[in-house]
Amino acid sequence: MANQRLTDKTALGQHLAADDKLMLVDTSDTTGSADGTSKSVENKYIIQTDKVEISNAEYLALDTAEKILVAAPGSGYVIIPIQVYLQYTEGGTKNSVMTNLHIGFKGISTSYYWDFFKGWTTAMAGAYPVSWFFNGASQSQLSSLNTTVDNQTFIMWLGAAPTGTATGTITAYVTYQIIKV
User: Fold this and answer.
1) pTM value?
2) Residue 167: CB atoms within 10 Å
3) How far is the C-alpha of 174 from the C-alpha of 44, rounded, in Å?
4) d(Cα 139, Cα 136) in Å, to the nearest integer?
5) For residues 130 and 120, what is the distance between their CA atoms, to the nearest angstrom?
6) What DSSP state is assigned to residue 88?
7) Rounded to an integer, what distance in angstroms lies between the CA atom of residue 105 and that of residue 151?
8) Of these four, 4, 7, 10, 113, which has the most CB atoms within 10 Å of its CB?
């Protein structure tokens, strides 16, 4: 609203959506004034955290149908993952299959991933939900990548199917930035 102070606006109080617009002053563009030009930028170009819910049916199919964590950003743009936080909630039937959970990019061989956890869910002990932080540093295979991640979807998949009757669900919080290359 015109002539209204920013401090008079209602606070958002939740995570920004990727397509939320923020106002800024581009000081290198002096076409609007000597101090700069007012512009908007989509939040996804700064740092974004998305919450992705993975249902039990999606969890059981993660070995054949990957879950999209961040959609492809468009040609000339790359997703830079910062951290993925997973919260696994087991239902009445436990997964007993030892499988590797991978997080990486679509369109690239499954040999290349940003991070993974070996023996995921079978290595757990104690009460549920259980949480993991992935930051790409511990197990990444992308350092030897001989291709581009330009316009690639950021996904999660399992190396083998969980127990067919397992009743777990996952909530993923994916923190990332999109850059222009």
Assistant:
1) 0.82
2) 16
3) 12
4) 7
5) 11
6) E
7) 10
8) 113
> What domains can be seen in the chain, in order of their start residue?
1-43 (no CATH), 47-180 (2.60.120)
What is d(CA 77, CA 168) in angstroms, rounded to the nearest whole number? 34
Residue 122: left (phi > 0), alpha (psi -120 to 50), or beta?
alpha
Per-residue pLDDT at 144: 57
Residue 10 C-beta-side C-alpha neighbours within 13 Å: 4
CA distance 70 to 149: 13
Both tokens of 99, joined, read: 């499988």
Residue that is written with structure tokens 């609203």 in the block: 1
In degrees and rounded to multiples of 5, residue 170 shows phi and psi of -130, 140
* Distance (Å, whole) CA 104 – CA 136: 9
Instruction: Tell me how many helices (H) and strands (E) the chain has.
Output: 1, 10
Q: Which of residues 22 and 53 earns the better pLDDT score?
A: 53
Distance from CA of residue 167 to its chain's centroid? Answer: 23
Instruction: Please tell me the total number of residues recorded for the chain in this structure.
Output: 181
For 43, list phi and psi in degrees, rounded to 5: -55, -30
Q: Is 158 strand, coil or helix?
A: strand
What was the pLDDT predicted at 110? 65
